[in-house]
């Protein structure tokens, strides 16, 4: 836990993710990433130089998940917890019948989470993206979209007057798995029909295969995202 808290604090400090008096909504899916984020934020809150408040929010997308153990966890660590009922699953799979459902589902979930965070009086939303997510997103953007792009550690949404923060970007997935197993986090299994059959899952497997030939590939790809001095892209003459 101490090692992860060190990386967590460095990410917060590097990108100034938390300010005095913040009301932070933690998005809880019930997976290992979001539960680790909640535990790290609660631990960091105890020694943070900035005083801030936490609430946890889960969007019930209509897949029949049981979040009672998450309710119990939030009660144990003294974090207010809200479960918001939505019809996202119905929209994506039954009404729209999306062949590639992940993009629409993500947009609907993020929109609903931000809306409810504002209703609950929060000015920031914390998301559980980790180091691996950043690397996968970078490669997906390059290979599928032809652009060098990744989500940011901090994003201000001016239309909603809310800021998204991702404090776990220096922590890799294996560290999160290890912590979740060691502390027996109450993981809620993802029943999504598309789970395991996505472009992101393909990218995850591709990176793991690359790592067999280039052991440092993940570190190198992650460093690309902060290497502003050596960004060399072609600029066409206007």
Protein architecture, described:
The protein is α/β, with parallel strands linked by helices and 238 residues long. The chain is built from 9 helices and 6 strands; from the N terminus they run αβαβαβααβαββααα. The protein has helices at 2-15, 32-45, 68-76, 88-95, 102-119, 131-145, 173-182, 199-213, 217-224, and strands at residues 23-27, 53-60, 81-85, 124-126, 154-157, 162-165. Strands 3-2-1-4-6-5 form a 6-stranded mixed beta sheet, with helices on both faces. Strand 5 (154-157) and strand 6 form a beta hairpin. Helix 2 packs across helix 7 (173-182) and helix 6 crosses helix 8 (199-213). The longest helix has 18 residues, at 102-119. The chain is globular. The mean pLDDT is 91.
What separation lies between the terminal Cα atoms?
52 Å
Strand content: 5-15%
Question: Helix-strand pattern, N to C?
Answer: HEHEHEHHEHEEHHH
Task: Specify the structural class.
Answer: alpha/beta
Strand order of the largest sheet: 3-2-1-4-6-5
What would the principal axes of the Cα set say about the shape? globular
Number of H/I helices: 9
């Amino acid at each position: 836990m101490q090692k992860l808290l060190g990386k967590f604090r460095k990410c917060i400090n590097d990108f100034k993710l938390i300010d005095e008096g913040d009301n932070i909504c933690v998005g809880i899916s019930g997976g290992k990433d979001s539960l680790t984020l909640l535990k790290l934020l609660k631990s960091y809150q105890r020694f943070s130089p900035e005083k801030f408040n936490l609430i946890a929010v889960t969007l019930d997308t209509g897949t029949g998940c049981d979040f009672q153990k998450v309710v119990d966890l939030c009660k144990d660590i003294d974090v207010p917890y809200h479960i918001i009922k939505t019809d996202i699953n119905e929209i994506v799979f039954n009404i729209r019948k999306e062949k590639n459902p992940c993009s629409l589902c993500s947009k609907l979930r993020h929109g609903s989470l931000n809306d409810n965070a504002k209703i609950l009086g929060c000015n920031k939303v914390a998301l559980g993206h980790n180091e691996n997510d950043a690397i996968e997103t970078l490669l997906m953007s390059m290979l599928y979209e032809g652009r060098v792009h990744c989500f940011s550690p901090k994003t201000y949404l001016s239309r909603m007057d809310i800021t998204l923060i991702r404090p776990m970007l220096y922590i890799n997935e294996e560290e999160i798995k290890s912590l979740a197993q060691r502390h027996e986090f109450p993981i809620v299994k993802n029943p999504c029909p598309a789970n395991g059959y996505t472009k992101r899952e393909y990218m995850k497997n591709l990176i793991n295969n690359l790592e067999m030939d280039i052991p440092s590939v993940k570190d190198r790809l992650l460093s690309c995202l902060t290497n502003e001095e050596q960004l060399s892209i072609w600029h066409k003459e206007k």
